[in-house]
Amino acid sequence: MPKYYGYAGRILRINLKEKKVKIQPTEKRLITQFLGGRGFNSKKVYDEIPKDVNPLSPQNKLMFATGPLVGTAFPLGARFNVSAKSPLTGILGDSNAGGHFAAEMKFAGYDQIIIEGKSRKPAYIVIDDQEVQIMDAEHLTGKDVYETTEIIKKDLRDRTVQVAAVGPAAEKRVAYAGIFVNLARPAARTGMGTVMASKNLKAVALKGTGRIEIANPSKFWKIVEEIEEETYVHPQYWLRRIMGTTRILMLADKLGFLPTRHFTSATFEHAAKVSGERLAREYNVKSRACFSCIVPCSRFYVIREGEYAGLYGEGPEYEALSSFTARVGNSNLDLALRAVDLANRLGLDAITTAECIAWAMELYEKGELTKKETGGLELGWGDSKAILALIEKIAYRKGFGDLLADGVKRAAKKLGKGKEIALHVKGLEIIQADPRGLKGYGLGYAVASRGADHLRSEPFIELNDDPEKGVEMFGVPEATMRLAHKGKGKLVRYFENWCAIVDSLEVCKNLAENMELLPFKKAAEITEAATGLPFTEKSLFEIGERIVNLERAYLVREGVRRRDDNLPKRFLKEPLPNGNSKGMIFEIEPMLDEYYAEREWDLKTGIPKVKKLRKIGLGYVIADLKRNGVKI
Amino acid sequence: MKRILVNVDRCSGCRQCEMICSFSHENTFGSSISRITVIKEDIFGFDLPIACWHCNPCNAMENCSTEALEKKKDNLIFVNEEKCVGCGRCLETCTIGAVKLHPERKTPLICDQCSGKPQCVEKCPTKALTYAETAEQQPKLPNQILEETLRRWRIIA
């Protein structure tokens, strides 16, 4: 084995059918071209999962990867990505989580774990440094995420082992089941749990005694200390420490982009009752953090009275909180906590689950869906019985839940109605921010490589409405103003590249990007100090560009074109009825033109140009796309 | 004597203490070689860093068959590596589970309080760790701390 700094230096391949394990060195070329984490996964998804593979077949591969700063004292989080072809969208499936799994994966000795084939029997994988075992999991069948994690810790007589588990929703092949670490931290989006379960794999448990070496410790510590100093005096430090992302709920309400009652309103009259502020005041007992993170933004809550007294748990984050409050019209905070808890235990993606429920509620409220069709459920806005019942029915594919278990796009198709209000892009349900009030975010949803999602670009900077910043960064004052359409192509391209780097270093986007604690220059400096390999601001930007383009090429190979880079009609036709973004609609076409021009993608088709692919070292993709019938 | 004390309500369970400990002693990052270890019970949101309390008397020292655990003048316990055979008995007899064995050397890793300036305390992001005088010669057991904490948070009655 060559000597590695920063990286663990190994890639583990496990074939579940043949019960074979292969350990390969992490190639230097992969590192310099794709950096780590999401970059590693996207590269191998493109290279190893050919066009038209059925996402639930043994030919799909499930990949976990983490980055070169993980498993050290780097103070801004330690995450991993898990990727495969998505059973929800049929395109790139990819999701990312924090907690303590990623660091343990590094200590066990791996930068990436690739799982192939399908086990004949229910199984779980145990990785103890270089010893890999495929264990029988008959006794875990049907168990929820919490039970599974606990049983595995007992089986192994080890409470320090890190477990990534799926719940019953994944076993029932709900298209949007997640993979959960530390009980309540899911890699939730795009159905990666479903892919895992389709391989008859219930969990991956790992631990390790390995060490991560640093190439240039004095430089590494100097930068770490700079980051620490900046973090502790950052204006958002205490807000994040007290409320984490739940602080966004009141902000979204104030600015007028809080998706309420299935995006029919942009403010929620009960926002304060279900806010992060209220959670902090009345429910939270302490803060928790991901591995090595100095901003403990996760919270542990306890419900002490009322119907749900005795319920406690970690979280929720803004997305899940907002999912089960404003989006479904529920003003009962305790009920929302129970809903998130239930979705976690059963192993569901809270965002997609809430969209499916909110979609059905809107149809029901409009009289387009009857009690007969819902199996007797009354789906009025915020109906507590209906919310909890539907979460369970979806997870177990019971009754009306079965219809919703394939996501909102397929549910509308199957039901033959509600297509216009099925709020997704490329089959992935939209998150909790109304694009009419946040134009950069909206463009981000339209073009994101995993479907409607903010985490591929997260151009938070437009929230400040500061035209000077727009001029400084992009030469366009409107670029950083949230209600303007102009300049958003430049904005989104820049932030997509940044997010790709943050995801590949596997550090936290909230801190590295939103709090601007790790700009490209600093990212390059610390990555170089950690790994001993030459990285510059420019080379990182180019790696980000390469990752985004390779993901685009994967989507193109699967048939995605400009027509798919779109938002649901609601956002294009219906002006926002209220709040501080009142009257806004979303004008997608000029924004796409600008974005494609920035990206050097063909304006008509949205396919990356040959010249562009060559320029960023993706020449091999051109021939491959041609072989697959793409006119490039 | 001065000891490393923990405020469990403040501990976020981030394990920076483990990282700084491993680096300052071994010049590399790894949980397996840190002399402080965070016990985590995710189900209760409970995080408790454990480091050698330097008990008086020390159960592990009394049970060490080769008398490899010794006490310095300042009452800090340390390992005489020449006497240690790596049997791991200390790991089982330490009352709070503060000992782990170095994965290759197989000798116990015991907190040395970084010569009076514990780095884990210096770096603790939430100031959950402090270094202060205490007359308590024996630490509270982790299970007792867990129970008290859950009662305080009203998770158990």
Description:
The complex is a heterodimer of chains A (632) and B (157). In chain A, 64% of the residues are buried. Chain A has three domains: 198 residues, Aldehyde Ferredoxin Oxidoreductase,  A, domain 1 (4-Layer Sandwich), CATH 3.60.9.10; 195 residues, Aldehyde Ferredoxin Oxidoreductase Protein, subunit A, domain 2, CATH 1.10.569.10; 171 residues, Aldehyde Ferredoxin Oxidoreductase Protein, subunit A, domain 3 (Orthogonal Bundle). The mean pLDDT of chain A is 97. Chain A has a six-stranded mixed β-sheet with strand order 2-1-6-3-4-5, sandwiched between helices. By secondary structure, chain A is α+β, with helices and mostly antiparallel strands. Chain A starts with 9 loop residues before the first strand and ends in a 5-residue tail after the last helix. Chain A is globular and about 65 Å long. Chain B has a single domain, classed as Alpha-Beta Plaits. In chain B, a hairpin with a 5-residue loop joins strand 4 and strand 5. Chain B is globular, with a radius of gyration of 15 Å. At the A-B interface, helix 3, helix 4, strand 13, strand 14 and strand 15 of A face helix 1 and strand 2 of B.
Features:
heterodimer, A: alpha+beta, Aldehyde Ferredoxin Oxidoreductase,  A, domain 1, Aldehyde Ferredoxin Oxidoreductase Protein, subunit A, domain 3, six-stranded mixed β-sheet, 17 strands, globular, B: alpha+beta, Alpha-Beta Plaits, two-stranded antiparallel sheet
Instruction: Find the structural class of chain A using helix and strand composition.
Output: alpha+beta
Detail the poorly predicted runs of chain B.
none
Task: Give the biggest sheet of chain A.
Answer: 6 strands, mixed
Total E-strand runs of chain A:
17
Going by CATH, the homologous superfamily of the largest domain in chain A would be Aldehyde ferredoxin oxidoreductase, N-terminal domain
Count of spatially separate domains of chain A: 3
Alpha carbon gyration radius of chain B = 15 Å
Q: Give the mean pLDDT of chain B.
A: 97
Helix content bin of chain B: 10-25%
Give the N-to-C terminal Cα separation of chain A: 40 Å
Any idea of the CATH topology of the largest domain in chain A? Aldehyde Ferredoxin Oxidoreductase,  A, domain 1
Named CATH architecture of chain B: 2-Layer Sandwich
